[in-house]
Amino acid sequence: MTPHVWGFFAGALHIGLALAVSAHIVLYKTDVRSAIGWIGLVWLTPIVGSGLYVLFGINRIRRRAGRVRGRRSTFTEELRADGPEPVALPPDVPESLGALATLVRRVTRWPLTGGNAIEPLCNGDEAYPAMLEAIDGASHSVALATYIFDRGRAGTEFVAALERAVSRGCQVRVLIDGVGARYSHPPIVDELRHRRVPVARFVPSRVPFPHPYMNLRNHRKLLIADGVIGFCGGLNIRDACVLAYGLPDATRDVHFRLSGPVVQQMTAAFAFDWEFTTRERLGGDTWYPPGSNGKAGDLVARGVPDGPDEDFETLLMTILGAIGQAAHSVRVVTPYFLPDPPLVDALRVAAMRGVNVELVLPARGNLRLVQWAATAKLGTLIEGGCRVMLSKPPFDHSKLLVIDGAWTLIGSANWDPRSLRLNFEYNVECYSRALAGRVGALIDEKVASSTLLTLRHLHARPLMSKLRDGVAWLAQPYL
């Protein structure tokens, strides 16, 4: 065929694909900016743009996740049974937070649980010994989900503890994200398999072959021992998280040890992820022991799972609801701050209502593009009355939110589109002045060594830096 004929067929193929893909975008995309961006890419990059949308733009995970959820165990369904909240908020918690509890119940469909105990653990220095102790103390089951599981001193200790658990006859399951597993070479997955520890990769990334879910990551950090002791927060397993090692890439973080009925909800989240990945269902007394819902303390808490399936935007709705209910203070600590316009507006409106809004962000991030993009819009928040504090090195990976000194959100999610739209995350909302006070004290320590960012500092940046940051912000939906 002549070049003209080839050009005709290529043009017709491009138009046909672009029309079909644009129709899919219009029907299924809920975010206007995302829809416009994809449509522009599809039409301006013939055929390639359509191919990229097919690979990265379609959320196929909902369909498969729906099939897994349709096979939920009877026990899990009982945990999520409809009806009034089984427990009341503590008497020292403001009544206004009752509306927040109602909202989170509706978006998560999980009930509040009473009788919990939650303890913050700073960095791997405190968290890793406690986690290893829980693994060594387990007699029935150990479930571990993490984004990054690196080789190194810390990784070696965890591998050895998991191997000991297997040798004792414990049922052990380890789930590592397919991208996070590639942070060290060779991946520690091979070592775990060599030690006969059951392990799986969540949506493994097999470059150069595309995977239909490759853009959707499991960012959860969960450890559950015998169904009664749980850990969650922002801590990965890597040497940099142990400050005592004195590494140049040292990373601060906060993890939490939980006990009480809320641990059952954490187990259910892990069991879903494991079945989604391996098609093996975890159930029975091994994973949900009869005494696991006993009272461990006085704290009221609820798990908040979030992901690109039926839990889509549960965390975003939770955060927006919490900011909207704030009467006195909103304190945020996050390593990556790329909020969508609704979150920016919620923080600004809260500040203009007279609420003390405080953001603690790293002065020097570990991802330059993300930090440039974040800096581009901080002026809008400062103009609205928010205080932005920049914490000094080492890099702070902590993820904390405290409202009115009575409500705390802990877990794995960052304040960016990837955590709030694409990743599988797990957080826990806590109604307790005691816990909020302990977390607030940790935030006070961070603030004490931080620098207040002002509009004068932002305006004093060189023009090229402002342009660089503004261009980086254009990639915000994809960072």
Quick overview of this protein structure:
By secondary structure, this protein is α/β, with parallel strands linked by helices. The chain has helices spanning 3-28, 32-44, 48-57, 61-69, 74-79, 97-108, 123-137, 153-167, 188-194, 262-278, 314-325, 341-352, 368-376, 378-383, 417-422, 433-448, 455-459, 463-473; strands at 113-122, 141-146, 171-177, 199-202, 222-225, 229-233, 251-252, 254-259, 299-306, 329-333, 356-362, 387-391, 395-396, 400-403, 407-411, 425-431, 450-453.
Supply the key terms.
alpha/beta; 43% helix; Endonuclease, Chain A; 479 residues; two-stranded parallel ribbon; 3 domains
Architecture overview:
With about 475 residues, the chain is of the alpha/beta class. The chain folds into 3 domains: about 5-60; about 60-95 and about 115-300, Endonuclease Chain A (Endonuclease, Chain A), CATH 3.30.870; about 315-479, Endonuclease, Chain A (2-Layer Sandwich). Helix content is about 45%, strand content about 20%. It is built from 18 helices and 17 strands. The chain has helices spanning about 5-30, 30-45, 50-55, 60-70, 75-80, 95-110, 125-135, 155-165, 190-195, 260-280, 315-325, 340-350, 370-375, 380-385, 415-420, 435-450, 455-460, 465-475; strands at about 115-120, 140-145, 170-175, 200, 220-225, 230-235, 250, 255-260, 300-305, 330-335, 355-360, 385-390, 395, 400-405, 405-410, 425-430, 450-455. The chain has a 15-stranded mixed beta sheet, sandwiched between helices. Helix 8 links the parallel strand 2 and strand 3. It is globular, with a radius of gyration of 23 Å. It starts with a helix and ends in a 6-residue tail after the last helix.
